[in-house]
């Protein structure tokens, strides 16, 4: 025991680096999630006495993770109120009229939105739009998905709130004694990198594959769409209106046909006037169906009893078991529809839309149904032997009437922080309070918008960074590096920090790299007697602008799966993109500092 204590006393810094090396190996092997590895690393430092209890818990006072969480909630409110969805619908309407112009508009819109919103939900929403744009422009979708993702990632480096990585680095830098980094401090360098990246993508698009994805379908597999029918009530104010004049159709709701007196028409429907009892056959995602249900303008779906309303009771989701005795029969003939007071308001089939309409669609195993019914009916369906996964639907209707509140809350947070009235963390926290009290988003949904795994990773890596400082590991590393860099030109430090962060982030979590390298970078700058700000900004952008592997950034993985890319596709276009963006960012940093 005394021997161990003596070794810890003499070789604290070296032992700290050994633990760090073990963590890097664990990160690379990916046997455990990055957050688990980070927590175990922090525990190892604490157990060995390299990090005391007070210091360990002090990381929870760091504002960076909480700012990240608050910004995710604000982004979630924009999605919940349908703001982002509405923007996507406008883009798709433009795409039908001017496909090539719409492509440029999507690029510009992605740049603007990604500056202020977390780019993960932005990319999720853009994937189906890009699939539609590919159809409209006849450009292979694989030539569009990677560039769209790259633009979103690069644009996140234009402002301090564009990515969680930026906020983490800024928070640690402030704790290390640097002046607070403003929301637009990094803008010139982010813009330089984004412009260089766009030019590179345009010039090297021939390196991208042009074959069609073998999986994913027209939405890239990111949207679950249902077949449903909208029934015009007998006293509806829509009677006599032309179908083309309805504003409800867009990306989320697509008109497939009109069913009248048992006959289905598919073409020339825009000028057709609606009559009582008409059924509009549509394809819609779950959120759109719930929004239509809440609006009360249409009766949704089918029911054996015409008095059963889709607006009453609870909506559940259920999967048809392969053993269901009604497999192959019409949906209208499914037994529980006649035995219970329920209404089927949607039917989803993986990679294929059933039809020709909801009534005559043939049942298959694994079909998913949205069912509205009373509490008694729902209890009966839970005990149904041929339905699987019966549960209350988590899909919610958009709260469009509160969209302006969510927009103002986000805009106010950005403006107040930009004018240095209050910090971005406090501004975002106040914005969360506003959207919660005005019910733009429910508390449960707000907390689900926060990626807990990311927050745990950030807090744990902050603890690891603090342990490395207390153990003397940071000083030891700086001592090794300083003699090598003292003979190098000062401007070269920017390039060294940027590309080292880039290399690590292609292999590890970019948030972990940012949390780990920030104190080392600042200590190195002070040891060399140079301004740490350009080096911190280089680290900030280098840790995010990673395009050469599907694991380099979280949205890379989304696009990798949706577009059915190969690993080599990312390497082929990502390596030159990494180089040109890095050179543009670093050169701008050197020239402006």
Categorize the overall geometry.
elongated
Strand content: 5-15%
What profile does the largest beta sheet have? 5 strands, antiparallel
Number of H/I helices: 24
Pfam families: CitMHS, TrkA_C
Organism: Sphingobium cloacae
Protein name: TrkA domain protein
GO biological process, one term: potassium ion transport
Can you describe this structure?
GO terms for molecular function: monoatomic cation transmembrane transporter activity. It is found in: Membrane. One of its GO terms (cellular component) is plasma membrane. InterPro entries: Cit_transptr-like_dom, DASS-Related_Transporters, Na/sul_symport_CS, RCK_C, RCK_C_sf. Keywords: Membrane, Repeat, Transmembrane, Transmembrane helix, Transport. With about 600 residues, the chain is an alpha+beta fold. Among the domains are: about 70-215 and about 400-435, no CATH class; about 225-390, Alpha-Beta Plaits (2-Layer Sandwich). Helices cover about 55% and strands about 10% of the residues. The chain is built from 24 helices and 9 strands. It has helices at about 1-10, 10-30, 35-45, 55-60, 65-80, 85-95, 100-115, 120-135, 140-155, 165-175, 185-205, 285-295, 335-340, 375-380, 405-420, 425-435, 445-450, 450-470, 475-485, 490-505, 510-530, 530-540, 555-560, 565-590; strands at about 225-230, 255-260, 265, 280-285, 300, 315-320, 340-350, 370-375, 385-390. The protein has a 5-stranded antiparallel beta sheet with strand order 3-2-4-1-5. A 4-stranded antiparallel beta sheet has the order 7-8-6-9. Helix 15 (about 405-420) packs antiparallel against helix 16 (about 425-435). The protein is elongated and about 85 Å long. The relative contact order is 0.15. The model has no long low-confidence stretch (mean pLDDT about 80).
């Amino acid at each position: 025991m005394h021997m161990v204590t003596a070794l810890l006393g003499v070789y604290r810094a070296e032992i700290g680096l050994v633990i760090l090396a073990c963590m890097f190996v664990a990160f690379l092997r990916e046997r455990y999630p990055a957050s688990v590895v980070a927590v175990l690393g922090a525990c190892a430092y604490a157990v060995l006495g390299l990090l005391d209890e007070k210091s360990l818990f002090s990381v929870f006072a760091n504002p960076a993770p909480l700012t990240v969480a608050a910004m995710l909630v604000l982004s979630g409110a924009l999605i919940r109120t349908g703001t982002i969805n509405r923007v996507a619908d406008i883009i798709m309407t433009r795409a039908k009229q001017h496909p090539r112009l719409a492509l440029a508009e999507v690029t510009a819109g992605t740049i603007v939105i990604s500056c202020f919103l977390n780019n993960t939900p932005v990319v999720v929403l853009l994937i189906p739009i890009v699939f539609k744009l590919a159809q409209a422009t006849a450009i292979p979708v694989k030539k569009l998905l990677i560039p769209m993702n790259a633009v979103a990632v690069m644009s996140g480096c234009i402002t301090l709130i564009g990515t969680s990585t930026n906020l983490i680095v800024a928070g640690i830098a402030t704790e290390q004694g640097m002046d607070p980094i403003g929301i637009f401090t990094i803008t010139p360098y982010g813009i330089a990198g984004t412009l260089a990246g766009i030019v590179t993508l345009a010039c090297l698009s021939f390196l991208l594959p042009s074959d069609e994805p073998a999986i994913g379908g027209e939405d890239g597999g990111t949207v679950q769409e249902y077949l449903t029918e909208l029934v015009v009530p007998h006293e509806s104010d829509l009677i006599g209106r032309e179908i083309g004049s309805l504003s409800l159709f867009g990306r989320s709701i697509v008109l497939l046909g009109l069913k009248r007196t048992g006959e289905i028409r598919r073409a020339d429907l825009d000028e057709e006037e609606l009559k009582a009892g008409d059924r509009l056959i549509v394809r819609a995602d779950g959120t759109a169906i719930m929004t239509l249900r809440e609006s009360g303008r249409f009766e949704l779906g089918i029911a054996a009893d015409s008095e059963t309303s889709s607006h009453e009771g609870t909506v559940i989701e259920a999967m048809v078991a392969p053993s269901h005795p009604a497999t192959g029969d019409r949906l209208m003939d499914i037994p529980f529809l006649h035995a219970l007071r329920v209404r089927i308001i949607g039917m989803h089939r993986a990679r294929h839309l059933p039809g020709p309409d909801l009534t005559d669609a043939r049942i298959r195993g694994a079909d998913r149904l949205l069912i509205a019914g009373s509490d008694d009916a729902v209890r009966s369906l839970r005990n149904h032997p041929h339905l699987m996964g019966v549960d209350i639907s988590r899909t919610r209707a958009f709260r469009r009437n509160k969209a302006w509140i969510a927009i103002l809350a986000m805009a106010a947070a950005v403006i107040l922080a930009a004018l240095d009235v209050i910090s971005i963390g406090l501004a975002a926290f106040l914005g969360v309070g506003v959207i919660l009290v005005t019910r733009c988003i429910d508390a449960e949904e707000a907390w689900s918008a926060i990626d807990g795994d990311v927050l745990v990773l950030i807090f744990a890596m902050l603890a690891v960074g603090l342990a490395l400082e207390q153990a003397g590991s940071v000083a030891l590393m700086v001592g090794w590096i300083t003699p090598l860099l003292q003979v190098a030109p000062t401007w070269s430090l920017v390039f060294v920090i940027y590309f080292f962060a880039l290399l690590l982030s292609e292999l590890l979590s970019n948030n972990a790299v940012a949390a780990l390298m920030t104190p080392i970078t600042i200590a190195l700058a002070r040891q060399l007697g140079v301004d740490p700000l350009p080096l911190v900004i280089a680290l900030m952008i280098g840790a995010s602008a990673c395009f050469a592997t599907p694991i380099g950034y979280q949205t890379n993985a989304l696009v990798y799966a949706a577009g059915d890319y190969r690993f080599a596709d990312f390497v082929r276009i990502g390596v030159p993109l990494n180089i040109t963006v890095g050179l543009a960012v670093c050169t701008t940093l050197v020239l402006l500092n």
